[in-house]
Write a structure and sequence with these properties.
36% of the residues lie in helices and 17% in strands. The two termini are 23 Å apart. It is built from 11 helices and 7 strands. About 8% of the residues have low confidence. It is globular.
């Protein structure tokens, strides 16, 4: 119980890009004026040009440090020694797992759109991250970052990279991972049953998972539930056009059930963001009058949660 309480106290944060989806076209209604068939798919966020300006780099380093401190506080530094950690959907840099690598973990990342090494961004980021780590932890072993910077690429001795969607993660061996982490990733996965089956397959019995999930419609965070009005096929077309960046619509209760069906115990679901009351009341009235939506009669008490943390453990077989 003390461990779970520590998780609740520490693991409450969101990705900085959730403040405003500047690069994603915004939607003012549940149906876009121009059909996805008439446009090219949106370029995945991880493959867009990276901002290597001083302010952007400092923001990214601060974010990596904040997340690193959080995971170390939850797991305790000594726990990580020789443990295998997998991050799903790490984003444009691999700061979280590499901080864990500097504390003795064996780390890997997997992403459908794995961000390639950028000579203008990554050497600056990892150099600045290394300097900051030495200031925060005087005795830290920065060898994983030293190796990366020495070759100007991701040294396999420091981190293992898998360019793979979670639904296709067959390359990771069975029961090989002690801890799986993700932050604002699972809402972008379309086939969650297959994805969670892979999570269960690669996680050791008793292994842990920490997953912060953003349940909002990413097209317009001020109207976070609009995509629930879509008919299923219409939404699939929208999801495919946006490369999953709009979110997959899965609600917290549905996700909890999928974790449990895959073989995990859900030790915690802690909602940490809620739909604004006036918007929610107006939206719920519209949803109840949308018979083509599979969420037409969905429980209101679960709909109001728009972000939350899952802490799960793999059940022994």
């Amino acid at each position: 119980m003390a461990f779970l309480q520590r998780v609740l106290e520490i693991f409450l944060f969101s990705k900085p890009d959730h403040e405003q989806p500047a690069d994603l076209p915004l939607a003012q209604a549940q149906v876009l004026e121009d059909s996805p068939e008439d446009k090219e798919p949106v370029q995945p966020a991880n493959l867009r040009p990276l901002d290597a300006g001083p302010e952007a780099l400092q923001r990214d380093v601060d974010y990596a440090l904040g997340g690193g401190r959080m995971y170390l506080a939850i797991l305790a530094g000594e726990f990580l020694k020789d443990k295998t950690v997998l991050e799903i959907g790490p984003g444009t840099n691999f700061g979280f797992p590499l901080i864990m690598a500097c504390h003795g973990a064996k780390v890997m990342v997997a992403d459908r759109f794995l961000t390639p090494w950028d000579d203008n961004y990554h050497p600056k980021f990892y150099s600045q991250l290394r300097d900051s780590l030495k200031k925060h932890w005087a005795l830290i072993d920065t060898t994983p970052l030293d190796r990366i910077l020495s070759v100007s690429d991701y040294a396999p001795e420091s981190i293992t990279l898998y360019s793979s969607a979670l639904e296709e993660l067959s390359v990771v061996p069975d029961q090989s991972v002690d801890v799986v982490i993700s932050n604002a990733v699972l809402e972008h996965v379309y086939d969650l049953p297959t994805a969670f089956a892979h999570l269960a397959r690669v996680t050791k019995p008793g292994g842990l998972g920490f997953h912060q999930v953003d349940f909002r419609d990413h097209r317009d965070f001020s109207r976070p539930l609009e995509f629930l009005l879509f008919e299923d096929q219409e939404f699939r077309e929208e999801f495919d056009y946006r490369q999953g960046e709009c979110g997959n619509r899965c609600r917290p209760l549905e996700m909890r059930q999928l974790f449990e069906q895959a073989g995990f115990d859900v030790n915690i679901f802690h909602p940490n963001m809620f739909a604004e009351e006036e918007y929610f009341a107006e939206f719920l009235e519209r949803l109840r009058q949308a018979p083509d939506s599979c969420y037409c009669q969905y429980p209101a008490e679960d709909l109001c949660f728009i972000s939350g943390l899952f802490a799960v453990a793999r059940r022994p077989e």
